[in-house]
Amino acid sequence: MERIDTDVVIVGAGAAGLTAATKLVNAGRSVVVLEARDRVGGRLWTDTIEGAMLEIGGQWVSPDQDALIETLDELGLETYSRYREGENVYIDKDGVRRLFEGEIFPVPAKTEGEIVGLIEKLDALVAQIDPDEPWAHPKAKELDEISFAHWLETQTDDDEARLNIGMFIAGAMLTKPDHAFSALQALLMAASAGSFSNLVDADFILDKRVVGGLQQVPLGLAERLGERIRLGQPVRTIRWAQSVGGQGDAVGHGVVAVTDSLEVHADRVILAVPPILISRISYEPPLPRRQHQLHQHLSMGFVIKVHAVYETPFWRDSGLSGTAFSPYELCHEAYDNTNHDDPRGTLVGFVSDEEADGVFSLSAEERKARILESISHYYGEQALTPVVYYESDWGSEEWTRGAYAASFDMGGLARYGADLRTPVGPIHFACSDMAGKGYQHVDGAIRMGRLVADAILEGR
């Protein structure tokens, strides 16, 4: 077995791991990055499917994502605005298709008032939440012990208002039913974006895209790191030295990361992988009890990202922006996702959580027909016949196992959140799932990569 000696070994060549590696190398440290896949990027993946460039993973850039924007500038990457000219589409509970402009859906006046009121209440609560320490809120435990669905029920009896507000957190972000995560977890999601209003503003949260795809970020970082990155090297075991303090806390002095063909000996290791994969690695000695418990209270969401490419962006001819929503549709949201300078038109739609479970019980042909039928309710019959159709199914990815990110179960955030990023001896953790600002976005991954690199450089 080949042996490599280095200062820091990094597990995972996504944005967090590559950012940490870059900062450490620039500071004069030696690094080795071990990546299980045969590519870099993690949940950023731009690929060509049947001649069409598709953003299989993350893709959007919002104006508050300072860390990502700085990285784009450093790499010389260009951005362009998402197409948003024209009217949006909303489908109500009776299946009636309505056109609208602005952020508020065309719902009855009473429901509109309830939606606006809920947004104001959530913005007020979010303003009290530190995204880096949501568990520090005076009512964190109380908010973490009720589901977001239950919290909404305590605020309004308007079912359509609850469904629409829930859709922005449950379907569009955490990709879990709103009875499955807490009010505190929902507030963290909103706080990570600056406010709940930002989450409901598609023109803000889905502002721009990167020319050539967002995977250009990890690809650009990887190019600079060169042979320090070793692909196809899933880490099976981490051996780490420890001494035991008075409270049983592990204080480490060295680490060995073992793959099927490598042993990498280092002073520190950064686990830059989704939290649910941390327990896939064997540890000698085992991680502390707190870590074992913590990771049993985290799980990935689940969403199908649907790509449909057409000869032209036909919806624009009808004066449509391509933006569409409905909490009553199989595909609960969709957008114009046409690539930069591409004469063809691309729509991207999303099928989340329990709805995604349901369509995956069907054959591929039946699933495609059901999803395209739902999309056609927004855009008309032309949507039924794309020239390219593709489903991003991250739940089937061995080294991801869901999308978009991991979140805590009921009570888990207040109970374990403070331990999520805490190093264990020489073992450090960095991932977008652990971020405060930029949580579950590449911006958060970059922030976490910088944070953990700084900690190592400062000897923490």
Automatic annotation (TrEMBL):
Gene3D superfamilies assigned to the protein according to its UniProt record, in alphabetical order: FAD/NAD(P)-binding domain
Keywords recorded for this protein, A-Z: Oxidoreductase
Signal peptide residues on this chain, from the entry's feature table: none
Residues covered by the Amine oxidase domain: 16-457
SUPFAM superfamilies cross-referenced by the UniProt entry: FAD-linked reductases, C-terminal domain (SSF54373), FAD/NAD(P)-binding domain (SSF51905)
InterPro entries to which the protein is assigned, alphabetical: Amino_oxidase, FAD/NAD-bd_sf, Flavin_amine_oxidase, Flavin_MAO
Pfam assignment, any one: Amino_oxidase
Cofactor: FAD
Domain of life according to the entry: Bacteria
Similarity comment: Belongs to the flavin monoamine oxidase family.
Record-linked PANTHER family: AMINE OXIDASE (PTHR43563), AMINE OXIDASE [FLAVIN-CONTAINING] B (PTHR43563:SF1)
Protein name, per record: NAD(P)/FAD-dependent oxidoreductase
Species annotation: Agromyces humatus
